[in-house]
Structure formats: C-alpha cells, structure tokens
C-alpha cells in the first residue's frame, strides 16, 4: 500500500491545517511547539520554574523574575496568563532542537495537553513532516 504524502501546513494559515490524527506526531517537526504557549501559575509550578510556596507572592513579581530568567516572554496581568519564551526561530523553550520532542512532556502545560482540542483551529494541527 502506497502512502500518499501529506502537504506541509503553514502555521500562519489555518486553512492549510489538517485534521488531527495522533499518528501524525511520529514524523512531525512539532510545528505546534512553535506556536505561542499560554500558561497559568499552576502550569509553571508543575514545570518546576515556580515553587508552590511562591503562590502567595504578587504574581507580577513572579512574572518579572521569570522574564529575567527568560522562561516567559510575556505576562498578561489582567488575565494572569503567562506566555512561555521561545527560542530564536520560534521553537518552544522546552522543545529539544534535534529530536523535536518535548523535554518536559510529563510536566507539560495544560495548553499542550489539550492541543489540538483547544487551539487556533480545534481538531486540526499544523502538521509539517520531518525532512531527511
């Protein structure tokens, strides 16, 4: 049986995204890990960059520290939502550059756990096959 190649999606153009199927993850470039990742304080505690005892501190103070440490790239104080920092090129801070796998998979944020059910196009992903 011949496999029909799937065209690579453009993360910026939702109409190019394809219906999600878990088998796609095995040979994908982890394009979803190049999208901005919004996280809450509980996610940061689970990841291990914030200690549980810091929960009582002013959230802006935590945000300033994490921005200095380059763990987050943005903080929305109105909604108390952090955006994880991205490396040059757009990769998530926690995406391994060679294997293209999450280095904190068991502790990953809820946004990542719920993708693609929750995201820019529910039920679809920006699949891009690995090259070579």
Estimate the global geometry from the Cα principal axes.
Answer: elongated
Radius of gyration: 16 Å
Distance between the termini: 22 Å
In total, the number of strands is 5
Can you characterise this structure?
By secondary structure, this protein is of the alpha+beta class. It has one domain (15-125). 16% of the residues lie in helices and 11% in strands. The chain is built from three helices and five strands; from the N terminus they run ββααββαβ. The chain has helices spanning 41-47, 59-68, 110-113, and strands at residues 18-19, 38-39, 72-76, 81-84, 124-125. Strands 2-4-3 form a three-stranded antiparallel beta sheet. Strands 1-5 form a two-stranded antiparallel sheet. A hairpin with a 4-residue loop joins β3 (72-76) and β4 (81-84). It is elongated and about 50 Å long. The relative contact order is 0.26.
Question: Notable features of this structure?
Answer:
single chain, about 130 residues, alpha+beta, three-stranded antiparallel sheet, 5 strands, about 10% strand
Short summary of the structure?
By secondary structure, this protein is an alpha+beta fold. The chain has helices at residues 41-47, 59-68, 110-113; strands spanning 18-19, 38-39, 72-76, 81-84, 124-125. It contains three helices and five strands; from the N terminus they run E-E-H-H-E-E-H-E.
């Amino acid at each position: 049986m011949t496999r029909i190649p799937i065209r690579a999606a453009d993360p910026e153009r939702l109409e190019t995204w394809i219906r999600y199927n878990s088998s796609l993850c095995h040979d994908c470039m982890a394009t979803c890990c190049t999208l901005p990742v919004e996280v809450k304080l509980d996610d940061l505690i689970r990841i291990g960059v914030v200690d549980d005892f810091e929960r009582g501190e002013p959230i802006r103070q935590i945000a300033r520290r994490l921005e200095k440490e380059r763990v987050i790239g943005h903080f929305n104080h109105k909604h108390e939502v952090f955006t994880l920092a991205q490396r040059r090129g757009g990769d998530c801070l926690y995406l391994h550059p060679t294997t293209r796998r999450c280095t904190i998979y068991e502790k990953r944020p809820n946004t990542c756990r719920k993708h693609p059910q929750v995201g820019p196009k529910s039920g679809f992903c920006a699949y891009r096959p690995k090259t070579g």
